[in-house]
Amino acid sequence: VQLQASGGGLVQAGGSLNLSCVTSGFTFESYAMGWFRQSPGKEREFVAAISWRTDSRDYADTAKGRFTISRDNARKTVYLQMNSLKPEDSAVYYCNAWNMNNDYWGQGTLVTVSS
Predict the structure, then answer these.
(1) What angle do CA 73, 104, 82 make, to 5 degrees?
(2) Using one digit for the tens of pLDDT, what is the confidence trace for 22-36?
(3) Distance CA 80, CA 111 (A)
(4) 59 has a pLDDT exceeding 90
(5) How far apart, in whole angstroms, are the C-alpha atoms of residue 89 and residue 30?
C-alpha cells in the first residue's frame, strides 16, 4: 500500500496550492479519503474528507470556504485545493485512506505559508 502526497511548497499568504495524493495497493474506490495536517508541537488535526462515492464531503472549520477536497477514482488520486492560504495553514499535510477494516497513511508534504 502506498499513498504518495505531493504539491506542497512555499507560498505567500493569500496564495494557493493544490495537493495530490496518488495511491496504489488497495481498492481506492472503496475507501473514504482525507487530509490531515500537523504543525510542530501540535497534534495531527483533521482538514477534510470525502466519501468513497464522492457525494459527501466534510471540512474542518478552519478549511471551510477556502479548501476543496476531490477525488479521481480512475486515477486513484485525492486532491486538496487550498486557496486564500494563511500562515497558520503551515504544516505537514498527510493523506489518509480508511474503511471499516483498514486505515492507511502516506508520508506528508510540507506546506509553508509566509506572511
Answers:
(1) 60
(2) 999 999 999 999 999
(3) 12
(4) yes
(5) 29
